[in-house]
Amino acid sequence: MNLKIGIVGLPNVGKSTLFNALTNAGALSANYPFATIEPNVGIVPVPDERLDVLAKMYDTEKIVPATVEFVDIAGLVAGASKGEGLGNKFLAHIRECQIICHVVRAFEDKDVVSYEETKAENGAPENNPASGDNPIIAQAVKKVNPKHDIDIINTELELADLETKEKIAAKRKKDASDEHVPFLTEKPVIYMFNVDEKTLVDDTKKAELRKLVEPAQAVFVNAKLEEEMAGMTKAEKMEFLESYGVKEDALGELVKAAYKTLGLQSFLTAGKKECRAWTIKKGATAPEAAGTIHTDFERGFIAAQICNYDDLVKLGSEKAVKEAGLMRTEGKTYVMREGDVVEFKFNV
Ligand SMILES: Nc1nc2c(ncn2[C@@H]2O[C@H](COP(=O)(O)OP(=O)(O)OP(=O)(O)O)[C@@H](O)[C@H]2O)c(=O)[nH]1
Ligand SMILES: [Mg+2]
Question: Cis link prior to 215 (omega < 30° from 0)?
Answer without folding.
Answer: yes
